[in-house]
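COURSE: Structural Biology Practicum
ASSIGNMENT: Worksheet 4, Part C
STUDENT ID: 0417
INSTRUCTIONS: Below are two proteins. For each, the amino acid sequence is given first, followed by its structure token string. Answer the questions at the end about the second protein only.

PROTEIN I
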Amino acid sequence: MGQSISSPPPATVTRTSPPSSCPMHDVPSTGCPIQHNNPPVAKSSGGCPIDHSSFNTLNPTNQMPNLPQTPISPQAVPLPTERTMSSIPRVVDGETKTDTHQTWEYPSPQQFYNALVRKGLDTPPEHIETVVEIHNFLNERAWGEVMKWERRVAQEGDEEPHLARFKGRPGEMSPKARFWMLAGWLLPSRFNTEPPFDRHDWIVRRPRDGTEVRYVIDYYSAPSTPNGDPGFALDVRPALDSLESVQQRVAVGMDDVWEGLREKGWGKSERGGTQQARS
């Protein structure tokens, strides 16, 4: 759900660029800031919503991964150890019996760097803080897109859904991404030919009845904005795992089609009235 970008991969991609205060404006926008060359299969952890870490041991007191905060070779630049709380709900009131609202916690730059080194991903330590900013920014935007879908099916009085668990799948292209890659191969002048640089599956739980919905998120690099800011495109949608999700995808697709036709002035006469079909 969202607006399309020029030469879009999918029809429901949201174009996004970071706020002007974010240091990620100093990095190029082509591809993922982390080099995922032959990345290992990611596993779900209890820390950041995007699982870039191989540390899967959870602290039983907070269900966070025990990522080390100490420098690791060949690091030569000191990195911050402060962690940032996200806005993404991890549990909702009542589930913990404490009447508190908890959110997922992002790794510190030091933890992030350690995780990358352990996975064999080459990222200079002096760039890690920028990479973490990008990582956190894209997570927040992805959750915002998930909530757009969730609001379509929410009922009055429902509590906010939360992210129950997740899985990074950078080595696997979704069926939709494969389709748009084929479209780009057949019609390169109309469709993007670049594959997504990352993919994640998020499991969202609805407190009303405990229903869990899988969302697929494809991350694309996008053209820079007119003022030179890096651009990213997120394609966030519920997986076709249930009839409800299929109906949602069809409804949103039709909305996008009609919106496109309205923008082109289809269906309106010169006097502003609706044109009638002629037999």
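PROTEIN II
(use this one for the questions)
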Amino acid sequence: MSALPGFLVTKEEEELTAEERRKLERKLKKERKKKEKQLMREAGISTKKVEPKKQSGSELALAYLTRWSENPEEWKFQKTRQTWLLLHMYDKEKVPDKYFTILLDYLQGLQGGARDITVQKAEAFMKEFDGSDAEDPNLLEKCERIRQVLQLLS
């Protein structure tokens, strides 16, 4: 007869079936854990598990781009990361300059529909910005990035 450590086995428990014994052991274990948690709370020790911080889409996409650049053997294509990069490549805050130069290299290998759509969107952005006379520095930087992408892919 196996009993949980620290618990005495009574004659009644010895006569239990295997299933009943497992249920009792689980119940006793649950009660023991509950008591341990209560003691830890009273001692002021946190019982909550700390969840590791999940990376944002931005961090994951930039790490993907870096891996493509620095470690091509271990790089694996991920459509969601590529899509994020293509959607946010003109935003200097989301894709800083040091990553944008890597992204331009990455875009050289862009194929098929993704390449066509990227060119179409860039051309549409250029038409939109050509119509406006804004001297906003962020807008000018965005236009410059669009120009670089169009020059590369056209």
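ANSWER KEY EXCERPT:
Q1: The two ends are 78 Å apart (CA to CA).
Q2: The mean pLDDT is 84.
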